[in-house]
From TrEMBL:
GO molecular function: beta-lactamase activity
Entry-linked SUPFAM superfamilies: beta-lactamase/transpeptidase-like
Pfam families associated with the record: Beta-lactamase2
GO biological process: beta-lactam antibiotic catabolic process; response to antibiotic
Protein name: Beta-lactamase class A
C-alpha cells in the first residue's frame, strides 16, 4: 500500500476517534482508565458516538472525558431531574433540612473533607407531601420499563412513585408524577441548577409522533457527572433533597452497563458491599445506552456519565457497547478500591 494511502487512512481514523483526555495520574499499572479509553476508542472507530466524563467525587477533578460537552439523547436519565424536583417539594413542604425526620451524618469520601452528606438510603418519617396519593389514568399508560403497569393498585403515594422510578425507571410512575409536577417546573429546576445541556423534554410515550419531542431527555456527560457529584455531596438544592434522590437511585436494579463491573447485587445494594457503594441511573432506547452515577470505594469516589449511540442492527453490536461500558466501570473500580 502506498505511503500516501496509509497516511490518509490513519488521518481518517484519527478524525473519528473520540477526542478525549485522561488524567495524568498513575496507578500501579500505568495511566488510569487506560483500558476504558482504549475500548471506547475502538468503538468510536467502528462508528459508535461516545460521550463520557468522570470526575473525582471528592476534589471535583476531571479524570476522564470524551466529547463531554455535547448534548446527546440520554433516554431515561432525564428522569433524575423529575426526582430532584419531587424531592425538593417534599423537603420544602414537609420541613426543609429534615424531610420529616433527622438525617444522621455520614463519613466523608476517602481523601476528601467532610461534605455534610447523609446516608445513601434515607428512611425519614414521611410527611404530607410524600404521602399524597396520586391515581393513574388511561392517559398516563405506557409500556416498557417499570412495575406499576403490572400491579393492580390504582393509586400510590408520591414517595412510592419516586422509589419505583429509582428502582425500575418506572414509565407509568414517571408520567403520573409529571402530570402532578409539570414539565415546566422540572425545566425550571434544571435551569436553577445551572444545567444548560441536560433536559427532560417530554413525558414517556410508546410512540413519538411528528409533534412530539424527538427524545425523552438529552444531556451532556460533563453536566451529568457534575450533577451526580453534587447529589453525593448533598449540594443539589439542599442536603435533604440530595439524600432523598440518592436514596431512590440506590434502589436501581439495572447494573447491565457501567455498574455491572462493581460486583454488586442488582436487587440489593442500598448500603456498602465489600466497601463499594453505588447509586446510578441508566437510560435505554433503540441505539442508545446511557448511565450516570457515583461509585465510592475505600480509596476514592468517582462521579461519572457515559452515553453510547450506535447502530443497533444486531446483537454483537449491542454486546460490544455493553462490554465497553463495563470495561470503563472496571477502570473506575480500580480507581476507587
Amino acid at each position: 500500500m502506498p505511503e500516501s494511502i496509509r497516511r490518509r487512512a490513519r488521518s481518517e481514523r484519527e478524525e473519528i476517534a473520540p477526542r478525549g483526555r485522561r488524567t495524568d495520574a498513575v496507578d500501579g499499572d500505568g495511566v488510569i482508565f487506560r483500558k476504558g479509553f482504549a475500548s471506547l476508542t475502538e468503538l468510536a472507530l467502528s462508528g459508535v458516538q461516545v460521550t463520557a466524563c468522570a470526575v473525582d467525587a471528592g476534589s471535583g477533578k476531571v479524570l476522564f472525558s470524551v466529547d463531554d460537552h455535547l448534548s446527546v439523547p440520554t433516554a431515561s436519565i432525564g428522569k433524575v431531574l423529575l426526582l430532584i424536583e419531587v424531592a425538593a417539594r417534599i423537603s420544602a413542604r414537609d420541613g426543609s433540612g429534615s424531610a420529616g425526620g433527622a438525617v444522621p451524618p455520614t463519613p466523608p469520601l476517602p481523601g476528601s473533607a467532610p461534605s455534610g452528606g447523609g446516608p445513601r438510603t434515607v428512611r425519614p418519617a414521611p410527611g404530607a407531601e410524600a404521602l399524597s396519593i396520586l391515581n393513574r389514568t388511561a392517559q398516563d399508560s405506557v409500556g416498557d420499563s417499570g412495575l406499576w403497569q403490572h400491579l393492580q393498585v390504582p393509586a400510590l403515594p408520591v414517595s412510592d412513585l419516586a422509589a419505583l422510578i429509582g428502582a425500575t425507571s418506572d414509565n407509568l410512575a414517571t408520567n403520573v408524577l409529571l402530570r402532578r409536577i409539570g414539565l415546566d417546573a422540572v425545566r425550571a429546576r434544571a435551569e436553577s441548577l445551572g444545567l444548560r445541556r441536560t433536559l427532560l423534554l417530554d413525558i414517556v410515550r410508546d410512540v413519538r409522533g411528528p409533534d412530539d419531542a424527538p427524545q425523552l431527555s438529552v444531556g451532556s456527560a460533563r453536566e451529568l457527572a457534575t450533577l451526580f457529584r453534587g447529589l453525593e455531596r448533598g449540594e443539589v438544592v439542599d442536603e435533604t433533597t440530595s439524600r432523598l434522590v440518592t436514596g431512590w437511585l440506590s434502589l436501581g436494579s439495572d447494573l447491565s452497563m457501567v455498574g455491572g463491573a462493581f460486583g454488586l447485587d442488582p436487587l440489593a445494594h442500598t448500603g456498602p458491599d465489600h466497601g463499594i457503594r453505588l447509586f446510578n441511573k441508566t437510560g435505554t432506547d433503540a441505539g442508545i445506552r446511557s448511565e450516570a452515577g457515583v461509585v465510592v470505594g475505600p480509596r476514592a469516589g468517582v462521579a461519572y456519565a457515559v452515553t453510547m449511540r450506535f447502530n443497533d442492527v444486531d446483537l454483537p453490536a449491542r454486546l460490544g457497547v455493553l462490554e465497553a461500558m463495563r470495561t470503563l466501570g472496571t477502570d473506575f473500580l480500580e480507581y476507587v478500591y
